[in-house]
Design brief:
121 residues; alpha+beta; Alpha-Beta Plaits; 5-stranded mixed beta sheet; 33% strand
Length: 121
């Protein structure tokens, strides 16, 4: 197998939003995007919706960039969890980068996907 040269990690939290709180959640989404927009290590960031479900697609240059993001939006994430239920969280990336994240995120119920092949342009 070819050696993996990618250090990127992605995080995917899934939310279930009560219909009566959708407007409130969408307001938080705007705050998340504004807070994240100028993070130098963030490669992409956005929310996708399907009915009363939401997924945040987030990609970072490496594990350190993701930890910086958490420091930046931790309070917002706590507020979002008061409005919506987090139904799943996934972390994706090469093992050396995931290893940086496992201890700081140990309290969260994350499904870890280890990347072992691929490329990034």
């Amino acid at each position: 197998m070819a050696e993996l040269q990618d250090t990127g990690v992605s995080f995917s939290p899934y939310f279930e939003i009560p219909p009566e709180r959708m407007d409130e959640f969408r307001g938080l989404v705007d705050e998340f995007v504004a807070a994240t927009k100028n993070e130098p290590g963030c490669l992409y960031y956005g929310f996708c919706f399907h009915g009363n479900q939401a997924l945040c697609r987030e990609g970072y240059a490496d594990g350190d960039a993701f930890l910086a993001h958490l420091d930046n939006v931790g309070e917002l994430f706590a507020r979002a969890q008061q409005v919506a239920k987090v139904t799943r969280m996934e972390m994706h990336g090469p093992e050396p980068e995931l290893a940086k994240l496992r201890a700081p995120l140990a309290e969260l119920d994350i499904v870890w996907f280890t990347q072992d092949c691929g490329f990034r342009r």
